[in-house]
């Protein structure tokens, strides 16, 4: 993900968690949550949501 958007990302933070949490937030907006869906996203899905 970083390689694809490296020119657009000003800051990236990894927040450790437990219980299978995997959430992606862009500009303060949650665009994906494994806790909500129960599964990891594929790259194309994340790229599409980040580009919207």
Automatic annotation (TrEMBL):
The keyword Nucleotide-binding does not apply. SUPFAM superfamilies: Thioredoxin-like. Keywords: Redox-active center. This is SelT/SelW/SelH family protein.
């Amino acid at each position: 993900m970083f390689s694809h958007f490296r020119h657009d990302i000003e800051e990236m933070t990894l927040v450790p968690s437990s219980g299978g949490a995997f959430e992606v937030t862009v500009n303060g907006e949650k665009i994906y949550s494994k806790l909500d869906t129960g599964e990891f996203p594929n790259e194309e899905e994340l790229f599409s949501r980040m580009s919207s």
